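Here is one chain, start to finish.
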Amino acid sequence: MDSKCFRRLFLIFFTSIAGLMLGCGSQNETPVVLDNYPVKSGVVNGKEFSYRIYVPGSTDNSEKPQVVLYLHGAGNRGSDNSSHLNGLGGYIQQNKDLIKFIMVMPQLPEGRFWDAEALEMANAALDATVKEYNGDTERLGVMGFSMGGNGVWSMAVMYPGKFAALVPMAARVLPTEEEIPKVAKEVADAANDPNNFKAYAEKIGQTAVWIFHGSDDEVVSDGDAHAIQDAMRTGGNKKAKMTTVVRGGHVPLAFENKEVFQWILEQKKEN
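Its structure:
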């Protein structure tokens, strides 16, 4: 092999590895103690699914607990009902004194995105947890990273008025053309609307939203995030805000902001 050919192969290899590293982002490597995340199960459309929950050690016993759904990114898909806690479990452990709400954590199978059926299952897991722990239906939240952040926007459109707080991180808003056939009708209609971001904003209404995106995110552009933020504010949502983290990459940046947990706790639906 001549030196020119070798250099070309090396360049291809190097850029491929760099792309994989950027795509994965930096993970929190704190060991996960699975016993801290009880296993639950449910059935939707005749299909059984499993998920995990996190119940904080300390909550305000004077009121019903808040319950928050978490949707993971593409790198945590699987069928073991545990690998989706990689990274996330570390963030929870590091912030356990601040996370005073119950978390519900379903897992996507390999090759799937947060399509209509997957979000129906996630919603069923959320509802079951609210019922089991007598959760506060006026203070429900949903968080998500990357692909899961896209799922946050879809959940908001599928179940308008259900949530008090939305926290999408490093995510696009609209489904791709390939995804459209598998999303819920409400999501497809909003995405295909000539004024699609306005259509999403109208479904979100006055729900509190805190968007997180890194200025150095090379995996997901912040274009959708700015567009939906502008649409929500134009539509009169004064509780929608966006944080662009300087030099932030493709990681779940909300967990690095200590204020977000108290912000979630303070949110309540407007009747």
